Fold each of these.
Amino acid sequence: MTRILVAGGLGFIGSHLVERLLRREDVAECVVVDNLWTGSWRNLAHVEDSRLQILVEDVERVCLAGKFDEIYHLASPASPPWYMAQPLRTISANVVGALRLLDVLAPGGQMAYTSTSEVYGEPLVSPQPESYRGFVDCTGPRASYDESKRCVEAMLFEAHRAQGVRIKVVRLFNVFGPRTRVDDGRAVSNFVTQALRGRPITVFGDGAQTRSWGYIDDIIKGLERYFWADGVDYPGPLNIGNDREIPVLEVAEFIQRRFPKCPIVHLPAPPQDPTNRRPDLSLANRVLPGWTSLVPYEEGVERTIAWFRREMRPGAAAKRPLVANASAKAIGQNLRLV
């Protein structure tokens, strides 16, 4: 039987991944470590499974008993406003967190890491293949996230080469969907929450910058197949995302048409905001034959609007217990505060 650890398992992507892991009959225990920096216990509050244990603690400092057969490292904020506000903490979560997790990996176990398209920086090549080394400013305002992700990739591949550690590294492109924070700060969630509040939809710069929006269900299916379901023996890095490239302004206009009373306003562009993002999925098509992003961004946005509408309705949050007095019925008494 398999013992699993998920760092960042109460976050947006991490919680969806935990749900998929718990579908496996070979899982004896799934331990989630999350400090609730950007995650929320509510993301797994509906799960009633005795195999799930949740430790509320920084991944760098958590005390863990024994070794784990599979470790998934997702313990990092991914939104620029969040990682720019606490850059040293971001670097620590990624780099020091990875070192801590390697310490508790069982011999012959697998370490999986969700890296990011941000390792490509301001790309001079489009679409971006995994072989592209990127164009990153290692001292710029986004460096805490970009470079700490690159550092963990380097660390894991060195562990793989020098010590034979089994690794899986994915580079995710602009994932969106339900369980994103209301105050996440990235484009889709920003536009949706602003519109639902009846406020102007704010676009940074002229909105011509492009992104490749991947709906969470499609991305999680790709992670499931790569990390465990298909028995893939390829360390990565592997691009996972939607290769349909869309300007940010087009997404804002799509949402604004559903909320016509909310005007689009333009704000100054943030520093070093990448002009384009589009994954080259040639390698993913070979490693994961038949996998693709099935949900078009239009449908994904509609689903996201519906989810945020429920989350933001008056009294919705008040009906849920806070972390300090939570746990019992919410997650089957599996929440442990440390």
Amino acid sequence: MAFAITQTCCADASCVSVCPVNCIHPTPDEPDFGTTEMLYVDPAACIDCGACADACPVDAIFPAGDLTGPLRAYEEINAEYYAGRDVLAEATAAPNFHRWSPPSFARVLPSDFAPLDVAVVGTGPAGMYAVEDLLLHTNSRVTLIDRLPAAGGLIRYGVAPDHPSTKKIGEKFARFHDHPRLRLRLGTEAGPELAERHDAVIYAVGATQARRLGVPGEDLPGSLPAATVVNWYNGHPGVRPAAVDLSAERVVVVGTGNVALDIARILTAAPESLAATSLAPAALTRLRASKVREVVLLARRGPDDAAYTRSELLALAARGELVVDAHDPRIAAAIDAGDGKAAWLRGLPREPVDWSAPPPDGRRVVLRFHSAPVAFTGDTEVRGVAASGPAGEIEILAGRVVRAAGFRGAPVAGLPFDEETGTVPNVSGRVAPGTYVAGWIKRGPSGGIGANKACARETVGALLEDAVAGRLRTRRRGLLRR
């Protein structure tokens, strides 16, 4: 029985390195790595050893025959990735169908490489992958800093509380908090003195600002950035328990990315189904009193261009409360004829929606494509969203709007900043010798948790290259002998 990777895949390739028959792809040295939504097990090559399941930090890998409910689809999803391969040709070229890549030794440190003192700012995935690399592959001493009183960053405050397996990767990172060569400083703001006290500083501070939509009414009361809602239900100390008002029957979420789907799923879930999760207690109390019955996911483009991943859509559709607004014949045509993201919507109910009327009884999520927001309407607070469409402009009556159009980084004191991209300009993570960036502040808000592993490795590689070349400022004698 082959194993299969499922929806919580973090794609950090921990499973790839332990597979004895090279049957998990794409691997980090393949062109597709970082571009696919997840990794995939080849059922024809898998020998059912289970090593990948043991190594997976987010409990995403199971015997395919044991999958039930919404996870059952992942047996076929894994197999689809390998469809069309000439297995016979591959079998004659290499054992178990897949060629092994030649060994690569990207780093070579001199035998007399002396310990470095490195500060890492940020305890999210990018920062922790950098910490892991430094502690396991060098003799560096690391000071790990976070301005919040609890470690975790995106894992703690960004992952939806009903995704406990995804949050489990935080346990992998937390084991380094007690490492003898690491000092953890929480509730601490990073200042310019870091550069004076350390040989190098890596900033892994993420992308915390919401992208602006640039439409009238965007700042009306009742219009919230997605980050506020996500931080609210995860108990972020910087967001008030009363920050999210759930007194409206209909909420419009502008965007169709995974964060938008997370918000829609949490706001329409039965509160008791969230009681045993990591949902903030104050958020659970407000959800129990919520009047929200309908969440509208508003998309500028069609179903082929939706930003969500297949796994997030399957998790939402599994509840049986997802509807496609059939206001435009192009939508049905794309779903019926498509073989990409549009095809994922086959089987979902389609119906025209009267946006001037209150939502129907029960709770549901509505996908409305080909509808670009042009304004948020209302005098003293949001009352709806004016959206363009094939039949002209319409108004979707809604008492609350969540802007889930993406994130951007914020300027870091003392570092250059590109306002257009919302990132710190860098080359392979190097801002200047001694100053480095990793994660979303380096490359922009793209890629999931696992994408930060390769990103952090590249940054640490640039740091070590500078150290070996003598480009770091030596704070004390004997720091780096040549």
